[in-house]
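Thread: quick sanity check before group meeting

JM: Hey all, I'm pulling together slides for Thursday and realized we never actually wrote out the predicted structure for the chain we discussed last week. Dropping the sequence here so it's in one place. If anyone has concerns about the input, flag it before I start.
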Amino acid sequence: MKVLELKKVNKIYDGSEVPVHAVNDVSLDFDEAEFVAIVGPSGSGKTTLLNLIGGLDMPSSGEIIIDGTNLSKLKSSQLIDFRMRNIGFVFQAYNLIPVLTAKENVEFIMSLQKWPRKERDERTLELLNAVGLGDRINSRPSKLSGGQQQRVAVARALASRPKFVLADEPTANLDSKSATTLLGIMETLNHGEKITFIFSTHDPRVVKMAHRVITLEDGRVISDDVRE
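JM (edit): ok, ran it. Output follows.
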């Protein structure tokens, strides 16, 4: 089932001398439960493309359609609500709220969505157990290692059962062991939750695990390889 469509998407920034075509005429479809790596050299448009897909930025032209909804047709308040309900984010810098515990960070979006307390508690514990942190639910980020913080971020991204998760260089700040552990967890959750994962990455470990690899160069898709 198709969860995401990009139709002739462009993003142009005003440069100091000439406009910068950060994303150039990109058309892609993504299905439910895909595990996708977007790769390419620095400046190829990977992060810009993820920001467009996630509704954090708007395209200069073209359409981004998530589960039948065209993002460009939404008002600002509608877009915020839609993003909260349909898209999970995992950032390179973790972006956890420092004054909240692991449990409170994971359940934060569900609280905004007014999930009943019982369902919120059950979902939070389920996910923290799934990422191997069931014994650290009351720990604040400062008491967790980088790898553990990123696992909390993954649990938070999955909390409200989004259509897909966008992960921008999620292993960049992790040591080899933590990165391998995190990727294994994400792959397991991808299978178990049937949620699409889309990575922007330079990490060959992510590329090796991906079932589909999209290569960008100068904002264009130059290859889109699906693996069996």
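AS: nice. The chain has a mean pLDDT of 94. Residues 176-193 form the longest helix (18 residues).
JM: adding both to the slides.
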